[in-house]
Amino acid sequence: MLVLCSRMIRGERTFIRDLVSEKSPRWENVPRMSCPGRMRLSAGAQERLASSAARPIADAWCIAGRLEDSCMDRKPPWLELLDPTADVGLRVRAPALKTLFARAAWGMFFLLTDVRAVRPVDTRTVHVEADDRAALLVKWLSELNFIHQVERRVFCRFVITEMSSRSLIAEVSGEPLTSATNVHMEIKAVTYHGLSVRRESGIWKAEVVFDV
């Protein structure tokens, strides 16, 4: 189920979903994405989210941690955008832990830019370590965001080559930012607020919130 938004009602998150029944072997179509609430997005980003069903959008599929561009008429059903108070977050689902972390990275860059337009021009190795899986997710996304901000780069493809509960090694591909790159927001930090990485009924799930 691709996402829509959440709002805080009496201290609890209420998620608004708009689903349709048409399915493909990998995806469910979701007709529209609307984000009221307090997301501090640029006007262009708000328009992109509000009108995403009006034009084709690249989806992605992920097997064994590898994220690839796929057809242009569906969106990934494993990604939800959360709007808890003034911050922005993601909820991600995947059949494997490597895939979960790859999809979380893709989702973060979906928030940052038009990730479908990013080209995998070059590839680098990223290695992070932490005390547990949840902290590892924060370190992983924080490292990618650090590279994005300091080196002015965006990424679109994430291959987790080695992973344990406390470390991961990944090959990430992307390209430098240019004057033509549309950056929708700045992520100040990947937070521990509402952070979770868990396995339920054979499906890995994660929630992470960004300070924007």
In short:
The protein is an alpha+beta fold and 212 residues long.
Estimate the global geometry from the Cα principal axes.
globular
Terminus-to-terminus distance: 24 Å
Protein structure class? alpha+beta
Superfamily at the CATH H level? Archease domain
| Strand segment count | 12
**CATH class category name:** Alpha Beta
Report on the architecture of this protein.
- By secondary structure, the protein is of the alpha+beta class.
- It has a single domain, classed as Archease, Possible Chaperone, Chain: A, domain 1 (3-Layer(bab) Sandwich).
- It is 20% helix and 35% strand.
- The chain has 3 helices and 12 strands.
- The protein has helices at residues 43-50, 97-112, 133-151, and strands at residues 5-9, 12-16, 60-63, 66-69, 79-82, 88-94, 122-129, 153-163, 167-176, 189-190, 196-200, 203-211.
- The strands form 4 sheets. Strands 5, 6, 10, 11 and 12 form a 5-stranded antiparallel beta sheet that branches.
- A hairpin with a 2-residue loop joins β3 and β4 (66-69).
- α2 packs parallel to α3.
- It is globular and about 45 Å long.
- Residues 1-41 and 45-74 have low confidence and may be disordered.
Please write out the topology.
Layout: E1 5-9, E2 12-16, H1 43-50, E3 60-63, E4 66-69, E5 79-82, E6 88-94, H2 97-112, E7 122-129, H3 133-151, E8 153-163, E9 167-176, E10 189-190, E11 196-200, E12 203-211
Antiparallel strand pairs: 1-2, 3-4, 5-6, 6-12, 7-9, 8-9, 10-12, 11-12
